[in-house]
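pasting for ref
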Amino acid sequence: MRVTRSIVPNLFTLANLFCGFAAIIACTEGDMRKAAVLVLTAGIFDMLDGVVARLTRSTSEFGVELDSLCDAVSFGVAPSAMLYFAFFHEWQNWGLLLASLPALAGVLRLARFNVQVTSMEDKLYFRGMPIPAGAFTIVSYVLFVHLGSEIPLDWKPVGMVVATVLTAGAMVSTIKYDNVPRPTIRGIRQRPLVFLVFSVGLIAAIVSGGTTVFPFMALYMIGGAIRHLVLFMRNKADDDDTVEEADPDPFSL
């Protein structure tokens, strides 16, 4: 096997996969906090592999496919496992189906993204909520809301179902969601407000020990939907897609 410089970002991608696998094992052991930390760590590696690939100029279609396969485990299967072991196992077969929704939606989201990729450049928007964002929404809800004391005990089953279904729906939707701006001078100048919002969210998450992650992710998910609705109502004929290229929807038969 010929060793090339692309091995460096690929190692970060595989570290992402390892964290996802370890998170699933932590879920089976009932350690949801450890699982959440591992999913977060997978997200860090997922961000770093792209940065390293650009620094080493080793972006490739292979890297895109490998990244998607690893994301499917870390941000699809792992959060679904967390949902199942944290609550849905009590509902047996129906619980198994509901818990699987983030994994199913996430894989569909990744497949759609891959067939619509036309370049290796960063995109300002994504069509449908990115799977890492969906994973952070699910994981933070389970850890800080469902397993916490923020909502009454009687409301927790309903809250779990609503959070699961809405997150899965957001991932397979055609709603435009902002991509995380790169911390570069060009990225900051291009979208200063978006960079400021993401920076405030990151700082708040660190200071609060993670308790603000779910409110921020809920705002991200709902805010994107509201913006999409406003633009749709303002001009129904406007089909300006600066997201992933306006290709035929592969979900349409």
